[in-house]
Design a protein that fits this description.
Radius of gyration of chain A: 26 Å
Number of helices of chain B: 7
Distance between the termini of chain B: 71 Å
CATH superfamily of chain B: Cytochrome c oxidase, subunit III, four-helix bundle
Strand content of chain B: under 5%
Number of strands of chain A: 0
Helix content of chain A: 55-70%
Number of domains of chain A: 2
Order of helices and strands of chain A: HHHHH
Number of helices of chain A: 5
Largest sheet of chain B: none
Radius of gyration of chain B: 23 Å
Number of domains of chain B: 1
Shape of chain A: elongated
Shape of chain B: elongated
Helix content of chain B: over 70%
CATH topology of chain B: Four Helix Bundle (Hemerythrin (Met), subunit A)
CATH class of chain B: Mainly Alpha
Order of helices and strands of chain B: HHHHHHH
Oligomer: heterodimer
Strand content of chain A: under 5%
Chain lengths: 127, 237
């Protein structure tokens, strides 16, 4: 046996789908979704253009991985390894953002520059 | 004198060329090869992932500057190059298919050469049109970057966007240039008739690499070119 042979028709179909998604994401980038004003608060505050662009990119990525890279026809072990890559990427991005985006939630300790000069003479006295 | 026992030399005639003795059969060998390549690609995901994560953070910090920078990129070339690279992924997949289906070696060579030609078109458009125009418009940090007054207060951080742009597209282009070396080697191997329906591991594994490079661009295109508020100045670029 020579592994799973994907028919040429499937490759051509995926190719056409990828081209169509590329055209779609390019056209949609010039449409301002933020002026839609649905009245639903959550939708109105989300940067929809970014969400749509990335959703299309993920769809394209899945088509390439599953069919061009034959992961759909691979063993469970290979699938787990592939998913682990994206799991660790998600951890990298989400935990870093969890730090960066929440820093202003708590007030900055602004008193150090007034506290230190009063403590320093005391510390010097110790040594 | 050879160290190989006579019995093992006799075994060589009984299995397809390219079969390694540590494996049970060709299917297991293929599976192990793909798995090993995917482990490497996971490290590549994290390699590019560090850049993507940093890009996301700085974009949230200096959103206005990043959108100003993004609008200066040429969407036409970005979209055209995406299509070209998807085309090269198709021809790469077809080259593997040609070997799998036991087609003539000339067909494998043709698809591999087509893949290289499409890759070359990508780099030609990128370097000769996009990067060259950026240089003439003084948009390359470190090579006479000029901060424009129309950017306003955000202007000081626009070079940061272009640092990301050149580093990310440059790293991607470096991967493609490495890919040319791999594809060139494969073309010679295919021409010598090394691949058949039983043994095509080098094609399969290199294909995984080439498709991965395609996926990186699939994300670079929207992140760099598209999500910069294009609608604000419709008709330009």
């Amino acid at each position: 046996m020579s592994g799973h042979v994907v028919p040429v028709k499937t490759y051509l179909g995926i190719f056409v789908a990828l081209l169509a998604l590329t055209a779609l994401t390019t056209v949609v980038a010039f449409v301002d979704f933020d002026t839609l004003h649905t009245g639903i608060h959550l939708i109105d505050v989300i940067p929809l253009n970014t969400v749509v662009a990335l959703a299309i990119a993920v769809a394209k990525m899945l088509l390439v991985i599953l069919f061009f890279m034959h992961v759909k026809y691979s063993s469970g072990l290979t699938k787990v390894v592939v998913m682990s890559g994206f799991l660790f990427l998600a951890i990298l991005v989400s935990l870093t953002l969890a730090d960066e985006l929440t820093r202003h939630w708590s007030p900055e300790p602004g008193a150090w520059n007034t506290v230190v000069p009063t403590i320093l003479p005391l510390l010097r006295g110790l040594f | 004198m050879s160290e190989v026992p006579v019995s093992e030399m006799a075994m060589h005639g009984a299995h397809p060329p390219g079969f390694k003795h540590q494996f049970e059969d060709m299917d297991q060998q293929r599976e192990a090869g793909s798995l090993g390549m995917w482990v490497f690609l996971v490290t590549e995901i994290m390699f590019f992932g560090g850049l993507f994560a940093t890009y996301i953070i700085y974009r949230t910090l200096y959103l206005t500057a990043f959108e100003e920078g993004s609008r200066l990129l040429n969407v036409k070339f970005g979209a055209a190059n995406t299509a070209v690279l998807i085309g090269s992924s198709l021809t790469m997949a077809l080259a593997i298919h040609a070997a799998q289906a036991g087609k003539k070696k000339s067909e494998q060579v043709m698809y591999l050469v087509l893949t290289m030609i499409l890759g070359a078109i990508f780099l030609f458009l990128k370097f000769n049109y996009e990067w060259r125009a950026d240089y003439h418009e003084h948009l390359i940090p470190g090579f006479g970057f000029i901060i424009r007054p129309e950017w306003g207060a955000a202007g000081t951080h626009v070079p940061l966007f272009f640092c990301f742009y050149f580093f990310m597209t440059g790293l991607h282009a470096t991967h493609m240039i490495i890919g040319f070396g791999i594809l060139g080697t494969l073309t010679v191997m295919a021409d010598r008739g090394r691949f058949n329906s039983e043994y095509y591991a080098p094609l399969e594994v290199s294909g995984l690499y080439w498709h991965f490079v395609d996926i990186v661009w699939i994300f670079l295109f929207p992140l760099l070119y598209l999500i910069g508020g294009r609608f604000a100045i419709s008709g330009v670029n």
